[in-house]
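User: Need the bound-state model for nickel (II) ion:
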Amino acid sequence: MVYVTRKMHFSAAHRLFNPTFSHEKNEQIFDKCNNPLGHGHNYTLEVTVKGMPDPETGYVIDLKKLRDIIEDNVVDKVDHKHLNYDVDFLQGIIPTAENLAIRFWSILEPKITSGTLHSIKLFESDQNFVEYFGEPVSIPVYNHESALNREVMS
Ligand code: NI
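Assistant: Bound-state model below.
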């Protein structure tokens, strides 16, 4: 088995908050990432595919094709966007690196037809990154829109 990886970059804004928490608790838990209008990160995404090299090409997956799959299905949808509001497949989830990696997996896994998806590694900074290997996990979905309205009105 050989593991091949494509690295991609994107920049996006997010705000981490849980609408069921008080303002104080959100501030305490999410700190800078709870900034009301969001703040930005320069993300690095590494997608690893595993498989046996094709005997005729020597490729597990053509890395140009892997790049296009990641670009079309993930990077183009999140780059220079506000992750809480602009991205269909992230609506209502708390956009931590953990939850982004889980959602990216579910989008990319069915698109990869040479080899199989092995891992999603997502760097939120040079120091902080998460890795996901596809174990089943469910993410709570909140109604961020009503939470935002509630905060604006209170
Ligand atoms: Ni943040």
